[in-house]
Amino acid sequence: MKYTTEFRNNEVAQALLSHIRERSRKKARFMEFCGGHTVAIFRYGIRQLLPKNIEMISGPGCPVCVTATVDIDKAIALAQEKGVIITTFGDMLKVPGSKSSLQKARAAGADVRMVYSTLDALQIAKENPEKSVVFLGIGFETTAPTVAASILEAQETGVKNYYVLSQNKLSPPAIKAILQSGEVKLDGLICPGHVSAITGAQAWDFIAHDYRIPCVVAGFEPLDVLQCIDMLVEQVENKQARVEIAYRRGVAPEGNKIALDLMSQVYEPAPAQWRGFGVIPGSGLKIKKEYRQFDAEEKFEIKAAPVDDPKGCLCGEVLRGVNTPLDCKLFGKVCNPESPVGPCMVSSEGTCSAYFLYGGNAID
Amino acid sequence: MEANDKILLAHGSGGKLAHDLITKNFVTALDNEILSRMDDAAVFEAKGRLAFTTDSYVVNPIFFPGGDIGRLAVCGTVNDLSTSGAKALYLSLAFIIEEGFAVKDLQKIVASIKATATEAGVKIITGDTKVVNRGGADKIFINTAGLGAIADGVEISGINAKPGDKVIITGTIGDHGIAVLSQREGLGFETKLKSDVAPLGNMVAEMLKVSGKIHVLRDPTRGGLASTLNEIAKQAQVSIRLDESKIPIREEVNGACEMLGLDPLYVANEGKMIVIVSPEDADKVLKAIQKNVYGKNAAVIGDVASDHAGRVSLKTALGSSRIVDMLVGEPLPRIC
Predict the structure, then answer these.
(1) What is the rounded average pLDDT of the residues A8-33?
(2) Dihedral angle sign, alpha carbons of residues A291, A295, A297, A300
(3) How far is residue B72 from each of residues A1, A64, B144, B278, measured CA to CA in Å?
(4) Of A335, A319, A329, nearest to A57 (Cα)?
(5) Measured between beta carbons, which residues in chain B are less than 8 angstroms from residue A348?
């Protein structure tokens, strides 16, 4: 098993596509929650291969994109504090805050370092005992357990200069917010693969049960996505609504108990500000009292006032699935990957970036 | 000078230490009749059309699987000359070295430069060494400039791509970028992958021998295959259509790219050439490339068309089409 070429096999893809075309009769609108799926769908041109009665829309599952401007401003403010090293996953560097970005702050002299793992951030803290090392906790359930693990590791090894600015978010409340608002009608949900690896497919039961919407957890290779769409079509045609897994090599119904335990040991749910959504109750992860010595919000007095999103930017609407990037007047003109206005153009998983780089729905 | 010595500021001062460093390490190792005269300027005869290019090398780490900064500094410039169809003749070689750099590492790099220059059939005829304070540079930076001769009748340029032409890549893409990344601090992952860094002058000479209809040669270094093809499409005002299933990519590169969130189309190569050739000569040229030691995996990966000038598109593995844009930003700094 090589895990890439097998899941890009054209013959199998064509068979799945034929099956979808044969079976699909009803008009259906499917949303992919996850930015990783958005990229896979665009990179392999999957939208243009589907029958016309299937409409695909992108959802809010890009962690960088849903980070509110005020939270980015907080990170930038922290970066400018004396003696602070900011460690972050790379995507955050370019995201514009209200006045600057971490990348610009770095160019102006702030110590901002890109890491690929929270343990690298912790290592930087160990190597720089005279500095305060802050890790920007961005991401959904996929990264939250590793952030929690770094806090526990810091405690165990007596690291006193490691802090987390916890902006991690939970996925199910965001989907719930979309469904409750009634702004977009969905006939099926492509559930996130790696979030589900942690939460288990069971995290989506409420969607099938309360909203009668078919849910299928998918992986990120083109065959994973096609199989998922095939399974969604099957449910739609049969008027079913249940949670299925098209990504069994990565996801179990019950999820990853160790990771979930780590999360609940370190974090408690709290209200969180989302770009495009406002505050969603119970969708944030606050560091528990027992671990507050590692909480950057406790250690530093971070000054950042809530600000409006950039004028004309439709990132919020794009994240809720209400608009596509093509509806945005800034898209491709003022806003492009080199000088992004909103975060959906910055992140490699952002919907606007995928539209821009891969040419939208289809090319002639 | 002992191999376990360190480079001192005085090694770049122009005084005795500098003289010793240059004569004992560079001139002896890179010996040729022009360099060994030790004049401030290299003097040589030249006739006809010449190609001239320069590049600086700041790769981190300086030793990586399949190569090092020295081999890279020769290959990069030799290959840039080759993109004009020129035969590389002479290189200049300039070092900027950080104080405290290990002499044994410098000797290793010089030996690698010598071996690569010999392989490429190019002479290093002038050079310079500067030493900067600790922290003033990161270990060692190299600049090379290169001079090459272009045979009569050879007219190769990005503007020459014509509708109907075939696009060939001389081997697997992304090997260099991923091999270097695999060694990065904080990112180290285990792979047997090696950088493809190689001088391609001989391969280009063999291509030119079998075809007079090679229109474009370009080495897809930083920005990878995708960005280089975009440059050509814009330069020649044509569109380029790729077939994803034909692009040779190693499984390790695909796997690492998935893990790191990269697209192999944008990952750097240092031993590959994009060849755009008239369709009737495509087969001949492909066979000539495949006979070369660095061209075994060469493949025709697409063609040139006249619609949508400036655009590169890709037929995906699933048969749909999408745009392939230029690289934006800098996901992989200091790859060469």
Answers:
(1) 95
(2) positive
(3) 34, 36, 10, 31
(4) A319
(5) 261
Instruction: With CB atoms and an 8 Å threshold, state whether A45 touches B322.
Output: yes
Compare CB distances from A4 to B255, B320, B329 and report the shortest one's residue: B255
Find the closest chain B residue to A355 by CA distance: B323
Q: Write out the DSSP string of B108-162.
A: HHHHHHHHHHHHHT-EEEEEEEEEE-TTSSSSEEEEEEEEEEE-TT----GGG--
Percent of chain B past pLDDT 90, that is, above it, reads 76
Q: Which residues of A touch B255 (CB under 8 A)?
A: 2-4
User: How are beta strands B299-305 and B214-218 bridged, if at all?
Assistant: unpaired
Contacts of A185 (CB under 8 A, 6+ apart): A29
The closest CB to that of A348, out of B261, B320, B323, belongs to B261
Residues whose CB falls within 8 Å of the CB of residue B114, separated by 6 or more in sequence, listed in order = B29, B30
Contact of A233 with A21, CB cutoff 8 Å: no
A-facing residues of B in 11-40 (CB < 8 A) are none
What is the Cβ-side half-sphere exposure of residue B82, based on CA atoms within 13 angstroms?
Answer: 29
* pLDDT of the residue at A57: 95
Model confidence at A2: pLDDT above 70: no
Chain-chain contact of A338 with B328 (C-beta, under 8 angstroms): yes
CB contact under 8 A, B320 and A362: yes
Would you place residue B186 in the very low, low, confident or very high pLDDT band (cuts 50, 70, 90)? Answer: low
Cα separation, B159 vs A121, in Å, equals 47
Res B335: pLDDT? 62
To test the contact with chain A by mutation, choose from B172, B318, B325, B326 the residue with the greatest count of A C-beta atoms within 10 A, namely B318
Strand partners, B239: B305
Q: Is A309 helix (H, G, I), strand (E, B) or coil?
A: coil
Q: What ipTM does this complex have?
A: 0.79
CA distance A106 to chain B (A): 15
Q: What are residue A44's DSSP bridge partners? A: none
Closest approach of B236 to chain A, Cα-based (Å): 21
Q: What mean pLDDT comes out for the span A4-32?
A: 93
**What is the model's pLDDT at position A304?**
83
Separation between Cα atoms, residue B270 and residue B288, nearest integer Å = 20
In chain B, the domains with their CATH numbers are: 9-150 (3.30.1330.10), 158-323 (3.90.650.10)
Q: Domain spanning A1-310 has what CATH number?
A: 3.40.50.11740
d(CA A322, CA A29): 12
Helix axes A10-23, A222-237, angle to 10 degrees: 20
What would the mean pLDDT of B109-135 be, rounded to a whole number? 95
**Nearest one of B138, B120, B135 to B73, comparing CA atoms:** B120
Taking contacts as CB-CB distances below 8 angstroms, the residues of chain A near B325 are 356-358
Secondary structure (DSSP) of B14-28: SSHHHHHHIIIIIIT
User: Is A147 near chain B, with CB under 8 Å?
Assistant: no
Domain ranges for chain A, please list them. Answer: 1-310, 315-358
pTM of the model as a whole: 0.87
